[in-house]
Amino acid sequence: MRYYSIIIPVYNRPDEVDDLLYSLTLQTYTNFEVLIIEDGSTVPCETVVQRYEKKLKIRYFVIPNGGPSGARNYGARISEGEYLLILDSDCILPETYLEAVERSLNETEADAFGGPDCAHPSFNAIQKAISYAMTSFFTTGGIRGGKKKLDQFYPRSFNMGIRRDVFIKLDGFDTSMRYGEDIDFSTRIIQGGYTTRLFPEAYVYHKRRTRLIQFFRQVEHSGEARIALTQKYPSTLKIVHCLPAVFVIGVIGLCLLGILCPWLYLLLLLYVLLLFIDATYQYKGNIWIGMLSVAAAFTQLFGYGTGFIRAWWKWKLKK
């Protein structure tokens, strides 16, 4: 049985940490430790952690605020596990999460790995809609953690596993990067000759944002980060990364051309209907979530696309 160290960076999220820790007490596989790294929070979660000291092997540390990358690196250095499991504090684990990780590693060895995310039944409507936008095949979400990948799998920091010795050898996350640090790390893992795997059964419930404007800003930063990563690793830019930018330009073009040729609006309407029908079906006929999912999908595509375009403009044209 492998011994795992679960590393959770936290910044002003005591309620979310409570939900995550409770889900860890329900795990069917119990050979693990938990490291909570409080990243200079003004609203600490120490009292929450204390409630779980008799239920989990848990350690709590407070460090000066420096961002999640530094907190993850700190946790890795003091961890004791053979494998590190890095989670975001706004995740909840199904009871079989660690069991799925252990089983998957027994079936297919991997130096680093990750799993998909989905919405928990308890999430509110907007959280479910945002989850749809981030995971649906009809947005860019389909490449992030489904059973079929369009390219090599890059583990993300909300649900990432890695051998501790590999983490230490690669010096962990780049603390100078504000966004895209997990893709940067995954790229270095792959370029270092290590294997990465997608474990579909090792999924998490990811709460994400609760407002579309917050979601827009999050994905906008992701679009900007993609250009920063392209400057650092030119060969990593794929056609799929450009699709949101193409979508933004295409939608604006359709709207302008539609003034002269109104039938062009039907193309946009067909896409809206596709999203609505698919999301409504996935959420068992909930029309309200279907409508919100359309809004969330457009928010995701426009946020990422405009961030990508703006960063590309600064890079290529403004130098």
N/C terminus separation: 52 Å
CATH class of the largest domain: Alpha Beta
Q: Which consecutive residue ranges, at least 5 long each, have pLDDT under 50?
A: none
Q: How many helices does DSSP assign?
A: 12
Examine the secondary-structure arrangement and name the CATH architecture of the largest domain.
Alpha-Beta Complex
Q: Calculate Rg over CA atoms.
A: 20 Å
The whole-number mean of residue pLDDT values reads: 93
Q: SSE string, helix = H, strand = E?
A: EHEHEHEEHEEHHEHHEEHHHH
SS strand fraction: 5-15%
Shape: globular
What's the name of the CATH homologous superfamily of the largest domain?
Spore Coat Polysaccharide Biosynthesis Protein SpsA, Chain A
Could you describe the largest sheet, including whether it forms a barrel? 7 strands, mixed
Could you give the order of strands across the largest sheet? 3-2-1-4-8-6-9
**Helical proportion, percent range:** 40-55%
Class inferred from helices and paired strands:
alpha/beta
Domain count = 2
CATH topology group of the largest domain: Spore Coat Polysaccharide Biosynthesis Protein SpsA, Chain A
Number of beta strands: 10
InterPro entries: Glyco_trans_2-like, Glycosyltransf_2, Nucleotide-diphossugar_trans
EC number: 2.4.-.-
Transmembrane segments: 242-275, 287-313
Enzyme class: transferase
